[in-house]
Write a structure and sequence with these properties.
The complex is a heterodimer of chains A (713) and B (255). In chain A, 64% of the residues lie in helices and 3% in strands. Chain A is globular and about 85 Å long. Chain A starts with 5 loop residues before the first helix and ends in a 14-residue tail after the last strand. Chain B is mainly alpha-helical and 255 residues long. Chain B is built from 7 helices and 2 strands; from the N terminus they run H-H-H-E-H-H-H-H-E. A two-stranded parallel sheet of chain B has the order 1-2. The termini of chain B are far apart. The chains are: A mainly alpha (713), B mainly alpha (255). The interface between A and B is large, with 39 and 35 residues.
């Protein structure tokens, strides 16, 4: 029996990384040799690095887990990528292409990389084993409804059909990606601390990019990796919580649920490959014509997002089917927990609109590969069309991010103020309202894009309409808090923080909706401040609240309260300073997405001199933003340490520690494999906290004993 | 699964719907080559789509009750049906996006394609849908052999459509200098037919699977896979009901 550990994983990571690097270096030299006799070893180039990445990641998981589950998936992905790319290269060689056309700057040519990456994704899915049951069904072989999972942490590294395991897998992957995307942000935030280029300079060469190009890539990937991370985090909470809230034993389609998670893993690998394969300088929006000219990295980006989109679509499908078909007895529409309503609203958007971003990226990819002129004006195409298709998803997508978060706020608030949720029906409908209005506001991102001018005014009004259902939520929250007995454990702190931060995001929104103002605010740091406020208030704070709140349900232990408070009190003020400063410099004309800025932008008065550098107002502002950026990173690091430490050493918490009425807290933690051993029936309103004698659920008569029924006031 | 109608009236309904669809297709073609009214073409396409969605894809089954308890096969099939329709809604946004792209780029014009070829491939797909419906109906009435015969015919017509698009329609367009890279009309044509052909291909794979498993008697009791493959096949047909006028009929010839 072999023992696997993180130590052997890291050791293998190092060894395989060096081996992959060497192979890549050799291949790079070989390709150069085929093109010209002069060979120059490119030590910081893309090809050695991409092989090092692929080999190292696979080897790391081999070390901690052995050749099964995720390791097998990753190895198959690497093999699939190489085989697919070699296949296309072979065909191109048969077509008579030679030298420069057969091999590009990144060893393989662009079509070879695209086919390779897609073959890699499919190979991953077969390798990890998520297709096994479906393949058996296609061959007419029946499989059991459920598969036994391994005990312990091992089950999280291979395919499981249990929605709770998948929920944890999603959440964990989301946290990993938050760390990656946050690191990217710290790198370019450090560069921005003072005007001029300090370390991302023109002379730097890394991954076939110079400093400013690397800045653009990091900035673009910060956006998209965070978006994917948020989508996975949203899916994580929904997956874990929704079946428990509606009293289902699992999701409606457990295999599709597993598929939706596992398809996101190769997508994350593709996004990292985008960084290494020459990067791309388009921002996360990938507008053509710039994206039609970017290096091959943009293809990794497009297809990575495309693949991650399937995760979102199929996950949403599953949620809707589960809620429609698998609710407990008596759980009528107006007795659904409010988080379920939010999940439904979010899933409607994810199910439908996601297809449009996939399609828009696919069209640009085909424009690059086959010369199809969708967005190429010289062939009669229309670049603005891309923006319409892109924002048709990407605006509603922000509601995909925030609606579950707002649902978490509404779900947790009554628990911690011991009062009924104010205006249940209104708040349930406001989620749907936001989702539906969200479909008709997309062009407010395009006021300055050159689209037809008559479109501006209707989109301005529809955008301002979003404030109505959102306002309903705020009124409900305030009225719920009003006169309540407020308790402030860590989850509640994050809920309150979310309300404040989201309010800031909310009131900085309407100015951008006004066409007249937006023409000045667009593409400035004002916008950056605005959307970081909405996303932190709508997703990040509630996400942390949800993790602190449901952590005991998943593990049977609770996270450390003191370090949770430190996390909150370090992150919240830092974050507020960060975004308010962003808006402040944005109003004075600081443009977003640029590696450097004019030191005189906010006046030439020198405030102080540090390391022989003059700090004017704009420099001071950026220095402050960089410092608080690091403070936020430290607070998240504290969260990570708390998270891992509490898994093993946290205070044991198996009961209803928050004194909640919600069904999942009426049974002991951690949750048993098939959820409720006896089904429950809904007999009352979900949020009647503090009303004497009211009951939300009753377990079936057979087990109406003392173990399940903890009285809730 | 209700057996409220007897076998012959169910089969008769399939024939009637097919006749309606065929007449509407001819009508559509006639309108296009005579006075070419876009609103009427859109209306005809909508009527055809509604007929297929209601009678061939029997969307009303989503409303079925008396499904037994949650562990019964009927109830699980109902859940699967909800899942399949949600997927089709999602998928239709891809095709809707392609249509929107085509409307934005080409407006009221279409590429200069061979009209008779277009009518021919459309008929092939429509006929395949008829046999698919017939096969499914027979299966519901316990006629496994009839099901397999009809599914094989469906498969042959489907394959003919796929090969016709790739090996006749595309080279034909390229001869007319409509290539993917020549103009937006070519780009839209190849993108839309390509995406549709990809779905036809996946539908054919599903047909192979259900034919093989049905011939081994696996679906004699548990028939949902047959229904799923059939509904998907008809969905591909519905897409073509919109793509055919969009690519061949609407407006003037693109220059």
């Amino acid at each position: 029996m072999k023992t696997y550990s993180v130590r052997s994983g890291l050791l293998l990571l190092l060894v395989a990384g060096v081996v992959g690097y060497g192979i890549g270096l050799g291949l790079d030299a070989l390709a150069q040799l085929l093109i010209s006799p002069a060979v120059q070893l490119n030590f910081s180039g893309s090809v050695p690095s991409v092989f090092a990445l692929l080999f190292a990641v696979s080897a790391f998981f081999f070390g901690i887990y052995g050749y099964r589950g995720i390791t097998r998936g990753l190895v198959w992905q690497v093999a699939g990528t190489v085989i697919g790319a070699l296949f296309v290269t072979g065909i191109r060689a048969l077509m008579g292409l030679k030298g420069n056309q057969l091999f590009g700057n990144f060893f393989f040519s662009e079509p070879a990389w695209v086919v390779g990456e897609l073959a890699g994704v499919v190979s991953f899915l077969f390798g990890v084993g998520v297709m096994d049951d479906w393949m058996k069904w296609a061959r007419g072989i029946d499989t059991p409804d459920h598969h036994e999972d391994e005990p312990g942490w091992q089950k999280y590294f291979s395919v499981s059909l249990d929605h709770k395991v998948i929920g944890v897998q999603y959440t964990f992957t989301a946290l990993v990606l938050i760390a990656v995307g946050g690191t990217f942000a710290l790198i370019f935030r450090t560069e921005l601390a003072h005007s001029e280029l300090q370390f991302l300079t023109i002379t730097l060469r890394l991954f076939n990019q110079n400093g400013p190009q690397l800045y653009n890539t990091l900035m673009s990937l910060h956006g998209m990796i965070m978006i994917v991370s948020i989508l996975l985090g949203v899916s994580g909470i929904i997956n874990y919580v929704v079946p428990l809230l509606v009293g289902a034993h699992d999701m409606a389609f457990p295999r599709m649920n597993a598929f939706a998670y596992w398809v996101a893993v190769p997508a994350a690998v593709l996004l990292l490959m985008a960084l290494i394969l020459g990067g791309f300088d388009t921002g996360w929006t990938g507008y053509p014509p710039l994206s039609a000219r970017a290096p091959v990295g943009v293809q990794m980006f497009f297809w990575g997002v495309f693949t991650a989109g399937w995760s979102s679509i199929l996950g949403a499908l599953n949620v809707i089917a589960t809620v429609l078909r698998m609710r407990a007895k008596g759980m009528t529409a107006m007795r659904l927990p409010i988080f379920v309503w939010a999940s439904i609203a979010t899933s409607i958007i994810a199910l439908t609109a996601t297809q449009l971003i996939g399609l828009s990226f696919q069209l640009v990819s085909f424009q690059r590969l086959f010369g199809m002129g969708f967005f190429d004006p010289t062939k009669g195409g229309n670049p603005v069309l891309f923006q319409h298709m892109f924002w048709f998803y990407s605006h509603p997508a922000v509601y995909v991010f925030v609606l579950p978060g707002l649902g978490v706020i509404s779900e947790l608030l009554p628990v911690f103020v011991r009062k009924p949720l104010f205006g249940y029906r209104w708040i349930a409908m406001s989620s749907l309202g936001i989702a539906l209005v969200g479909f008709v506001v997309w062009a407010h991102h395009m006021f300055a894009s050159g689209m037809n001018e008559y479109l501006r005014v209707p989109f301005m009004y529809s955008t301002m309409l979003v404030a109505v259902p959102t306002g309903v939520k705020f009124f409900s929250w305030v009225a719920t808090i009003w006169g309540g007995k407020i308790e402030t454990p860590t989850p509640m702190l994050f809920v309150l923080g979310a309300i404040v931060v989201f309010l800031l995001g909310g009131i900085s929104g309407p100015p951008n909706a006004m066409v007249a103002l937006d023409l000045h605010l667009t593409d400035t740091y004002w916008i950056v401040g605005h959307f970081h406020d909405t996303i932190f208030g709508g997703f990040v704070f509630p996400f942390f609240a949800a993790i602190y709140y449901w952590f005991p349900k998943a593990t049977g232990r609770r996270m450390n309260e003191f370090w949770g408070r430190v996390h909150f009190w370090l992150m919240t003020p830092s974050f507020l300073i960060l975004t308010l400063t962003m808006m402040f410099v944005g109003l004075d004309g600081m443009r977003r997405r640029i590696a450097d800025y004019d030191p005189m932008l906010m006046g030439d008065k020198v405030y102080f001199n540090l390391f022989n550098q003059d700090f004017r107002l704009i420099d001071v502002s950026h220095l402050i933003m960089t410092i608080v950026g690091y403070l936020i990173a430290i607070s998240v690091l504290i969260f990570f340490i708390n998270f891992f430490h509490s898994l093993k050493h946290g205070e044991v918490a198996t009961g209803n520690i928050w004194n909640s009425r919600s069904p999942e807290w009426q049974v002991p933690s951690p949750m048993p494999v098939h959820n409720y051993e006896v089904p429950f029936e809904v007999v009352g309103e979900p949020y009647d906290y503090g009303l004497p004698g009211s009951k939300f659920i009753e377990f079936a008569a057979a087990s109406a004993d003392t173990t399940h029924q903890k009285h809730h006031s | 699964m209700s057996h409220s109608q007897d076998k012959s009236s169910m089969l008769g309904q399939g024939v009637f719907i097919f006749v309606y669809l065929a007449v509407l297709t001819v009508l559509e073609f006639g309108i296009a080559i005579t006075f070419n009214s876009t609103p009427i073409l859109v209306a005809v396409a909508l009527v055809k789509a509604v007929l297929v969605v209601y009678y061939y894809m029997h969307i009303y089954k989503l409303n079925a009750d008396h499904e037994g308890d949650e562990s019964s096969y009927e109830y699980k099939s109902g859940t699967n049906r909800v899942g399949l329709w949600l997927f089709l809604i999602s998928d239709s946004f891809v095709f809707g996006g392609l249509l929107a792209m085509r409307i934005n780029l080409l407006g009221l014009s279409h590429p200069n394609l061979n009209q008779y070829l277009g009518l021919f491939v459309t008929s092939v797909l429509l006929i395949s849908s008829f046999f698919m419906n017939r096969g499914e109906t027979l299966m519901q009435n316990g006629d496994r052999k009839g099901f397999i015969t009809n599914t094989i015919i469906t498969f042959i017509f489907g394959l003919a459509f796929l090969l016709g698009v790739i090996f006749v329609e595309w080279p034909n367009a390229i001869r007319e200098e409509i290539t993917p890279s020549s103009s937006v009309a070519g780009a839209a044509f190849f993108m839309m037919t390509g995406m549709h052909a990809f779905h036809v291909l996946s539908g054919l794979i599903f047909l192979i699977i259900i034919m093989r498993n049905a011939s081994r008697g696996l679906y004699d009791e548990k028939q949902y896979p047959v229904e799923a493959a059939a509904v998907y096949w008809h969905f591909v047909d519905v897409v073509w009901i919109f793509f055919y006028p969009a690519l061949y009929l609407v407006g003037v010839i693109f220059k």
